[in-house]
């Protein structure tokens, strides 16, 4: 019995893209089709057709270079822009593939991106005035380059139906499972995840995101305050104290600090404290109340609330997932 193709998913190959994602998704969709057969008890019932589409600099077209079901007319249902192996600042202009994706979108194709693939998708203009996600480390760059996009880096996957974006560089597994569920059903998606020993699609990046402060903004007075906060994060740090250290009025300091770092001083201090708390949860068996006090919180409940707001999980859940030291601790 000839297999029935229920979807054709096109994978875009562009300069410096992550080929591991391209081939990983290709394998995942094949495995999912095999599990769909196993679950149904019938042979060759449903299949996902996968095709690879390549863009090379200097060319004005995107061409199919591989097809799991050749010699059939193409009928793309989804197109995925995979992650990039280079930082967004080094990515080449993607006008040709963006135009290609845009034309497909207007023919009813669902567009998807993973990680820095969002920068390719953004060139279409189709995610202007929409929520979209990318790798948490690239969120600011995406916002600055495409200010009309509402970047929601806390999300691992944002599914708008006609456009789906995924966050981290390995979030192609989350996107792949999301598409498998849509095309082949929840049972096949869960069976595929179990077979590959991966979790079902995750929804948040915040648990994995690290705080990476900007020290290269060129404002020496603000830099002095940043260094002070990193060295004295556990103490009480009022805006007046920070402003005095910078030699500014509180109002000027608030404006300058946010312009230089992208966040308010109180948020910055919270991020530093939670960064230190995460280290302690990962590397020590100290109690959570002790860690809260050590990083500057006299109220453990306030610490737990802020920790969950920033990471998406409780301190106890974080320790269970990332802790490397066995000990009494607590939850």
Keywords:
331 residues, alpha/beta, seven-stranded mixed beta sheet, two-stranded parallel ribbon, 13 helices
Instruction: Outline the low-pLDDT stretches.
Output: none
Please give the count of helices. 13
Distance between the termini: 55 Å
* Overall average residue pLDDT: 89
Note the main sheet. 7 strands, mixed
Question: What fraction of the residues are assigned to beta strands by DSSP?
Answer: 5-15%
H and E order: EHEEEHEHEHEEEHHHHHHHHH
Global shape: globular
Query: Structural class, judged by helices and strands?
Result: alpha/beta
Q: Over all CA atoms, what is the radius of gyration? A: 23 Å
What share of the residues lie within helices?
Answer: 40-55%
Number of strands: 9
Going across the biggest sheet, name each strand in turn: 3-2-1-4-5-9-8
List the helices and strands and how they pair.
Elements: E1 4-13, H1 19-40, E2 46-54, E3 63-67, E4 78-81, H2 95-105, E5 110-114, H3 117-122, E6 131-132, H4 139-145, E7 150-151, E8 157-159, E9 163-166, H5 172-184, H6 186-196, H7 220-231, H8 239-246, H9 250-261, H10 265-283, H11 288-294, H12 300-311, H13 315-322
Parallel strand pairs: 1-2, 1-4, 4-5, 5-9, 6-7
Antiparallel strand pairs: 2-3, 8-9
Question: Could you give a quick summary of the protein structure above?
Answer:
This protein is of the alpha/beta class. The protein is built from 13 helices and nine strands. A hairpin with an 8-residue loop joins strand 2 and strand 3.
